[in-house]
Structures are given as structure tokens and as C-alpha cells.
Specification:
There is one protein chain. The protein has 225 residues and is mainly alpha-helical. The protein folds into two domains: 47-130, no CATH class; 132-224, Tetratricopeptide repeat domain (Serine Threonine Protein Phosphatase 5, Tetratricopeptide repeat, Alpha Horseshoe). 72% of the residues lie in helices and 0% in strands. It has 14 helices and no strands. Helix 5 packs parallel to helix 8. The chain crosses the membrane at residues 30-48. It holds the Pfam family TPR_21. Keywords: Membrane, Transmembrane, Transmembrane helix. It comes from Phocaeicola plebeius.
Length: 225
């Protein structure tokens, strides 16, 4: 693991990360919409009765709303640490409302903000705390976690997490991305047979995806090593 972390050839990892960064971070509005939807479903917006019985959940959900706006405006530092107008920041909110659904969501936001800022160790800390059962946000957060592992040289964890995210999502739009990333990381480690298996999943299971158009090139490259 230590040898992988100090490799002199980071370009393969960078290539493996680029697609996911484009989907999960640069095109964050897609994720933002899904995350907000998750709040609507499980974060406390389940009706007036829920608000009355769970006042702390409502308070937490209202508290992170401003952070979501900062996140959507690419103001990641303020989203994390807060402003001078009363917004505390995702880091404090995750701690203050620990145990609530909104606090759980604040962990995801904090992790995504840290990832965007290139602070991958901090991103891992918060992304790893997030838990969810939905079919978009939870796998997307897991995929980002996998990429952060790769950025910190933890390639075994990176590949395993990306494969898990792909399986959990079972999605034509994001599963092929994670499978290709995992395959590229596995190739970097010399695990070419495992890389081929990841690529073949794209070909056989997600053959109608955009990524499947060039997947034969990946399969051939890994097979010839």
C-alpha cells in the first residue's frame, strides 16, 4: 500500500478519476438535486406531523438549507465553515445534529466540499460517515469516496469501493463510470484479470451506456498486459 501511495506515475490514477469528478463534482447540480430530493424523502420533510414529532430534525434540515445554496454556487469553503450571517457550516452541523437524517446529509455535503477543495483525507472522514439506502445519492457518495481513496494512494480500497458503488447503483448512467475507474486502478496495480472483469461488466451489463462504446479498447489493453 505504501509503495502504491508513493508511485512516480500518478497519471493513470488521474485518468481514472477524471470521469467521476466530472459527473459527481463539476456537474454537481445533478447530485445537488438528488441530495435535496433525499432530504425531502428521508431528511425530515415528511409532513407537518413529522415536524411536530421530530422538531430537532426540522431544525437540522432548515439549518443546512443555506449550506446547500453555497454548495450550489461553488462556494465550498463557506459551505463547509459557515458565514458571518448565522450559517454554521456543514462541519459544525454534522456534529451538532449527529444522529439526525439532516446531520447525516451534512456529512455527505462536507465530504463533497472537501473533495472539491482537494482535501481528500478530510473528504474521506466525512464521506465515510454518510449512510443511505437510495439508488442515486448513496452510490454517488460511495463513488466519490472511492476516488478520494485513490487520490490518497489507497488503491485497494479505491477499487473495492468503486466496484461496490457500481453494484449498488445498478445504473446505466453511473455504474459504468465506476467500473471503468475501478478497472483502470486495478490495471495500475497489475491486477489485469480483475480489470478485464470490471470492463466486461460494462460491456455485458451496461452495453447501452455511453461508456460501453469504447469498452472493447479497455478490455483489449488489459488483456494484452
Amino acid at each position: 500500500m505504501t509503495e502504491q501511495k508513493h508511485t512516480n506515475d500518478p497519471l493513470n490514477v488521474d485518468e481514472a478519476l477524471s470521469t467521476s469528478e466530472a459527473f459527481l463534482i463539476k456537474n454537481k447540480n445533478v447530485l445537488l438535486g438528488a441530495v435535496v430530493a433525499l432530504v425531502v424523502i428521508v431528511g425530515g420533510f415528511l409532513g407537518y406531523k413529522h415536524f411536530i414529532s421530530e422538531p430537532n430534525e426540522l431544525k437540522a434540515s432548515e439549518a443546512i438549507f443555506k449550506g446547500e445554496q453555497y454548495f450550489g454556487a461553488d462556494n465550498f469553503e463557506v459551505a463547509l465553515k459557515g458565514d458571518s450571517l448565522g450559517y454554521a457550516g456543514f462541519v459544525k452541523l454534522a456534529d451538532e445534529f449527529s444522529g439526525t437524517d439532516a446531520g447525516n446529509l451534512a456529512n455527505a455535503y462536507a465530504g463533497l466540499c472537501y473533495a472539491q477543495l482537494g482535501k481528500y483525507e478530510d473528504a474521506i472522514k466525512y464521506l465515510d460517515k454518510f449512510s443511505g439506502d437510495d439508488l442515486l445519492v448513496a452510490p454517488s457518495v460511495m463513488g466519490t469516496l472511492g476516488n478520494c481513496y485513490a487520490q490518497t494512494g489507497q488503491l485497494d480500497k479505491a477499487a473495492a469501493t468503486l466496484l461496490k458503488a457500481a453494484d449498488r447503483a445498478n445504473s446505466l448512467s453511473i455504474s459504468p463510470i465506476f467500473l471503468i475507474q475501478a478497472g483502470q486502478i486495478l490495471e495500475k496495480q497489475g491486477k489485469n484479470a480483475e480489470a478485464v472483469e470490471a470492463y466486461k461488466q460494462v460491456k455485458n451489463k451496461y452495453g447501452n451506456s455511453y461508456q460501453a462504446m469504447d469498452i472493447d479498447k479497455y478490455i483489449e489493453r488489459a488483456s494484452l498486459k
